[in-house]
Each structure stands twice: as structure tokens, then as C-alpha cells.
Sequence to fold (697 residues):
Amino acid sequence: MLKYKSLWFSWLIGVLILSACAEPTLAPTVAPPTETPDPRSGIVADFTGAVQGRRTDAEALSDVNIGFRILETGEVRTGENARARLDLSDGAIVRLASNTQYILERAQPDEFGFVLAQMQLLLGKIWISLTGGEAQIETPLGVATVRGSFGIVAYDSTVQVMRFDCFEGACTITSPVFTGPINPLERIVLNETNSFRQPIPPEEVQQFIADNPESARLVVTLTALPPLAPSATPTPEATPTEAATATAPATATATLIIPTDTATPTMTPLPPTATFTPAFTILGRHTVRGGETLFCIGRGYGVLPSAIAAANGFAPSAALRTGQVLNIPAVQWTNISAGPACVTQFQSPYPGLPPSGGITPTTPAPGTVITPTTPAPAASGPKVVLADYVMWYDTNDFSPNYMWDVPSAGAYNSDDAATIQRHVAEAQQACLNGFTPHWYGPEDARTTNNFNQLLNASSGTSLQHAAVFLANIVPNASEQYLIDSINYLAQNWGQHPNYLRIGGRPVIFFVDMQRPWDSSSPSSLALAGWQRVRAAADPNHTQLWMAEGLYTTYNPTFDGLYVYRIAHATSPTAYTKQPGFARALRALEAQLRAAGGLPIGKLYWGDTIAAGFDDTRSRNLPPGTDLRVSAQPFAIDRRGGGYYSDTFSVTSQTNGDLMVVKSYNEWIEGTEIEPGSSYGNTYLNLTCQFANTFRSR
Fold:
């Protein structure tokens, strides 16, 4: 009947190599500020290079100085070759490496007077020194917790890898691939599908002590603990051979290659810090086809096969799998041996061998990125405001037993032409650019017919609508069903004057990205599937696909990213995290643009706002009629528009291209802005204010 979404981690498949970083020495070279400590703050006690910050997320970034204070939601960013030291109010110390983005979410005293600090690390590397209390550091891949101890947390957004070093005390990590305690003097490195544990080399512990003088008591820990054995062993590099592909099992996983910090210990103030960047520059990505080998691929691109293996975290002797996506690094193969050369999937800067004796496919490989000649590359244009629209109501669905309020116009049937015409008029009253109707594919006659009705009813207006394709609702939806549905949409609606196009491209929203494959499996399975679907349905990116999620797992296979739902029982302020997700998308966009890897020249961010949430009466629905993922019902108070205003205020920090109102008429979940019996046109009017403000930015 309808769909429930939980915000959860989606993870980008990337290179499994975390680059080494030198440790910064940021001793307190200046006298501590005389300002009275605040239990909810941190103070910049030392820095070097270009460092910016803001006291709270309501302020703009500015250059910091000694004594600069950040409060809850405050932020510090270090630039190239810059470093900073933050002193929390109870004596805890956080040191930031170069190219780091750090947010202090909360800092409150516990029952013992120590600070419980909740932090976000969106990019880079931090060193934690606690005299007590607890620090929780959230990264896009998981949460590292350090209690009364010392640790290092690093996150590389380019290759989507997290590292956590626990030096002493109680450390834990929470992530989809590993959750549990970390032993003292142990390191864990993880990405979206794998984790690897090993002892921290003694020389790196000595380096940490040298760079963090307050941690000198670690010397006791060094001698008191027995040695740790790694929980996994990296695959040894065997002599490279030209083994064919297709023999590797589908469940084979890459081995994480663990870097070491090799900087020489130093006690001099402010030593240089290595930039936190991947070990390889990636030229592009290649999807393996049947029969291809590492050497065949290397010959085609003129790239050293062993470098391709290293950039992807496996030994050169490892067999490849059909459909496996490989990062192709910028390491030239200067003396290419004779042999078959594979057909390339992007232009390499190095001279390779022409395809001969290799594989010449008759169809594009999954995930092939083809730069389109038409339409033209996307450019920043007018901002668009849409509202989720459901098209499957019967009159008996509207009951106080099932929903917290009912439409002021009374119960209706979604097939009714007069009802659709009224909704079109109310969309204009709310200053919307259009609806995002929920569509289940061409085999669902009701949502297909009602989409046709909506387009026809909008004729003569400026409204333009974009489908939200809920393939997750379709039982056992195959990849071919996805392809056929997308083709149906493009052929039947894509050029309709009232279908939304941006830069000439019909816009399609997708949800629940893993469900068509297996929602319990790693997102790598879904990513590979979506790459096949894109290659078959729209390889030239003549359509604009918006992926649902928090992270950039599916970009640039998808051209944009948005959050489907921002209200959650356990996190009523989840909407406040949207700026961080948007910044991560913009960072990826910049990286891809520099590498020439943006299929349409841009990635689109979609903000989501909501008037409220209340599905507490959905438990009364007749059995079998609620098709959402099972979850505990909950409610978020609308506060007469206060919650709606709060969710909209966050959009000023995202530089969003689109904004989606969740929703126009999702009455079962209580997110609707359609006029209701208890509030009339209140939310239509608020939506008009928000829409005009958003478009004016």
C-alpha cells in the first residue's frame, strides 16, 4: 500500500587502500585562553595554515584565531598542509590533520562531570586524547567510540575507507560490517563490505606518544599487554599470471590493504602533515566482461596490471569476476608485453595496445560511462520544488482509525478526474513546480493510468511532474522489469510538456536502492545491478536519475541524490544531517569533474522537508494492506508548522538543486500538506512561502 523508509548507511564501492598520514605535533605552544570554560564547547588552542570554523551551524565559516570557540553544531575545517588543536572543556584534546572537516555535535557532562562528546568526521583524520568521559566520532561508514583513552579516527571520502586506532582504554566501533569492542593497541580498517583488524605497529604507538605528549602513560600499556595477532591476513602477492576470469566464485571479496604510518618521530612544533589522499589517482572504472584478465585490461589502457590489482585491494594473481568493477589507476605500463588487449571503456592518457585477440562486446559493459553528445552537459539552473503524491486511494482508506487527520474535502478515490483536477489547483496554490507521483511500473495499471490523468489535467499549467519509481513494491522485480519500466516512462511520458525535464533530461526518482536485489546484501550487489540497468536503459545519461540515500554509493551511475524520508522514531532531528550529506556529494562532484568523470557535468542534490509524521494509527489497517517495511509506529509533533519550518531552515546550508516536500497526500504516514479538517490550508500556504524562498536562492 505504501512504503516505509529508514535512514541507514549506503556505501560507495571504492579502492580499499587507506593512505598513510604523518602524525601532527600540536603541543600547546600558547597559554590557554582565560575565558571561562563552557561544558558545551571546544576552543582552538593552536593551529597552523588555513583553518576555518564557525561557532554553530547557524553561522558562516570564517578564519579562526587562538581562542576561537565552537559550541554544539560548531565546525572546524583545515586546509592543505594545515592543522589544528581543539581543547574541550574538561581537558580532552582533539587534533585535526590537514584536509579535515570536523563537527562538534554535542558536548555534555556525564554523571561524573566528564564530557560526553558526540562528533562528526566528514573528511580527514583526528587524534583523540581523553582524560575521562567519552567521545563518539561518527563517520559515513560507522561510529567509533573512545572512552577515557586515546585513539585515531580517519575517513577518506574519496575511497570510502575508515580507520580506527585504539591505543588504550575502552574502544568500540559500530558499523554495518563490524560492531564490537576494539582491543588496546589494535587497529580496524573497514569499507562498506569488509573489515580488517591488526595490531598497531609499536613504532606508530611511539609516534603517537611523541605527537601527543599527554599520552605518555601509554608506555605502561605497551609493556602490560600481550601481543595481538591480526584477525585476518592479507593475501600474499603471488607471481602474476594471465588467468582467465570466470572461475572466481561470486562471493569472492577483496582483501583490505592496511597502510602504516611511517613518519619519523619528532618533537619539533608543528611538523608538516601528509595530505590525506588516496594512494593512487584513479583514471576511471572498468567493468569486467567474461574472459577478461588483468593483463588484457592493462594492455588496453596502458596501465601496469600489478597497479590495477593494488588499487583494488587484491593480488595480481587473483581471478577476476564478470561484472566486477575495477578502479584503473594512473600508473603507466611502459614496456607492454605482447598479448590480447581488452576493449577499453574510457579514454586512457597512456598508449595501450589496440584490441586484438581480446573480447569485442556487442553491447556496452555494465557501468560503462559514455559521455553524451546530447543533451548538453547540465548547468546550474532554476531550482525546482516538488511534493510526493500518492495515487492509489479508495474512499474507504480515509478513516480516523487509520490516520491522525482526514482531508477537508472529504474522502476521495485517486482515480476520480475531479479529485485530480483539485489536486492540480492546490499544487499551484502551494507554489509547487509539480508532484513526484508514486509509480509502480507499467504493469500496475492504476498508478500508470492515474499518472496519465495527472499529466493531462496539468495541461495548460506550468506544472511538471517527475515519477518516483517504487520498484521495491513490485514483488520479485527483475532487472529486466526495471529496464522495461524506465523505457516505458521515457517513451510515453519523457517528452510530455508536463513531465519534468532538467537540462532537457526527464527526471526520475528511485527509492530503496537495494531492494530489487537483496536488501540484506551489501550495496555493492545493488550498485553492480544498477550499473547494468543504466547501461541497458540509458547509457548516454539522456535522463536524470535521482538515487535515494545518504551517501554517494550510486553516483555517478545516478546523476543526483536525495533523502526519501527525514523523520524517524529514534532520530527526530535526522533532517539536520542533510547539509553533511550534501557536502559529501559536492566533494565527489568536484573530484569527478577534475577527473572528467561526470557524465552530465554535474551532480544534483535534492533537499527533503516535511510537515510532520504520525503513523500511530496505521496499526489498525486491515491485514495485508500495508506494504511498508515493518517498523514501530511513531509521531512527531507538527507544532503548528514549527517542525515544517525547522526542516526547511536546514536547506539554506545545502545549496540544493531540488526540494521535495514529504508529502502532498501521504495520509497514512501523517506527512501530508493537502488541506485537512484540523488545519485547513495552513500547510499549502507555508509551502508556498518555502518554495518561493528556495527558488530565490
